[in-house]
Amino acid sequence: MMGDSMVKINGVYLTESNAIGHLKSHPLRLTCDGDFSEIKEQETFEGTTSVPSHLRSGGDQGRRHARTLPCPSSSDLSRLQTKAVSKADLQEKDTEIEVDEVFWNTRIVPILHELETEENIETICAACTQLHHALEEGNMLGNKFKRRSILLKTLYKLVDVGSDLLSLKLAKIILALKVSRKNLLNVCKLIFKISRSEKNDSLIQNDSILESLLEVLRSEDLQTNTEAFLYCMGTIKFISGNPGFRNEIINKGAVDILMDLIKQISENTKKCGTCSPNLGHLLVQVTATLRNLVDSPLARSKLLSISAIPQLCTVMEQYVGDKDVCTNIVRIFSKLTSYRDCCAALANYSRCYALFLNLINKYQKKQDLVIRIVFILGNLTAKNNQAREQFSKEKGSIQTVLSLFHTFHQVDLHSQKQACEGAELPQAQRPPSEAEDVLIKLTRLLANMAIHPGVGQALAASRPAVGLLLTTLEYKSLDDCEELVINTTATINNLSYYRVKNSVIQDKKLYIAELLLKLLVSNNMDGVLEAVRVFGNLSQDRDICDFIVQNNVHKFMIALLDAKHQDICFSACGVLLNLTVDKDKRVILKEGGGIKKLVDCLRDFGPTDWQLACLVCKTLWNFSENITNASSCFGAEDTNTLLVLLSSFLDEELALDGSFDQDLKNYHKFHWETEFKPVAQQLLKRIQRHHTFLEPLPIPSF
């Protein structure tokens, strides 16, 4: 044979380079119960001090190849540890099941002989598969049948061959034979070593070793086998990082098994009153695996069905000092709370708000943890007023959020100053910085919290809160960080809704209006929309109305009616409505074709948005207060169009004949009856009273 010279070991030919580790392995001997050990008792991994560093941390599921680990040698599986024969061991031997001699001699012995003499790896692997099937057929799996030690002795001799495929097949049989103690640990180490390489994922999947590992976690004792569980979970965590494995892992009951492990760890911690380091290491691997699995809808559904969220909160409370555990669980929640049902389940755990505040205060400088907690709180408060109230009632909640805002605001200011002094990428080309990312999530949380009247009024009156928001608008542009500027403006909009005596927003209204001008003239429609919304609230004040006219903002609002964007038209119309409260400013609607654009909005959006239709009618009602002739007030063409539209829209059958589901129909009917209909009827009557009909009006179809 060309290339490396060959060496024959255990009947298998290997190149000298592959055989080096094998030649250095120690002689094997069997202990009384068929377990194996090494005469030299020194272990590579012994106790908690030797746990590999990345089994201690959650790690990144996508970077197995970059991990550093003192890999367990394959000779770990052939180490002998002498031990005394206990009474329990003797009793176990008494319960051993006799083997059918004929079956043993005709089905098992030939395969064992082939394993000892065969030289081809593929043939040996095939023989291992045959052996597993035969043992299963003969009810010889488990640890209760005689001659088990003969089987194990043969299998152990093959461990050092060096083939990952063969090692997996051997490990699967060894696990099925229910080895215990050090042997269980070493076989878990062997599988873990193989799983570290992503190229072995297909081997693991094809050989169904996953089922064997889950069975270890399901059936073996946690306290006795904590370190074996750690390596077992390390393997499962690795393969759970492969999206192709996730549904298979979940379908094999992994979520139930992992949550049961978490429950056991939690109960043990509660019982002992302390957090065991080894159990902490294991908990990191379990939660890291769940973190990978929750990307699947199957896992999310399962977690909800077994009420897993409160249990995860409980164990995080117990291990609040363990950053890795907390980070993993927070990452799980950040994924789960993107879904409404999971969000509701977490919100129902009343202690979660205090827990998250505790974590923020404890890990305020750990950006990766803090940003996810703030994101979760933003999700919880997005559509749940009770969640807003519960969070606000936690001691120091708003102060903690504002303190966090101030901290990362300072970090961001410092970073921006450094960027100005050095060569940076053009702003539009770079993603948000870490500090900006936290600020984005914080402003979103504040905007959500401000929807609650009690919280909103308190924030509107808070100089620190409003000061931070205004400072952000001062030094950040849309080009710097679009999402932060838009979120900040949305928060100011929510706060500007509250017209309370001590409102800092009201005190600073003119300054806010000036800051918003740069948003109005931007090309960013989201930024424009948020700015117009703020003007909609602030324009209830006469000073702001004067500011709008003096700075020609009203012309911009009229132009926006042409945007064909429903939300923008709604907000712009709100500003124009507020302007027409002042008789002196009604004339502005004549500028830029304002009347025609309002009528077009009514035609285009009326049947789908009766609130917008109501705003248009109110604006036209204010504008026409001193009407003497409809045509001279609105223009002949727009007058005729208004008569047709209002007549049609006030016909309930025509107006509400949309293809909506029942809930949406009820929604439309409510706003049509309570908002649009009253003002539209009055406007139609006014126009009819001041209009001379020259010819019949056509009835349009909708």
TrEMBL record:
InterPro entries: ARM-like (IPR011989), ARM-type_fold (IPR016024), Armadillo (IPR000225), ARMC2 (IPR038905). Residues 43-76 are annotated as: Disordered. It comes from the Eukaryota. GO terms for biological process: sperm axoneme assembly. PANTHER family: ARMADILLO REPEAT CONTAINING 2 (PTHR21356), ARMADILLO REPEAT-CONTAINING PROTEIN 2 (PTHR21356:SF1). This is Armadillo repeat containing 2. The lineage of its organism: Eukaryota, Metazoa, Chordata, Craniata, Vertebrata. The gene is ARMC2.
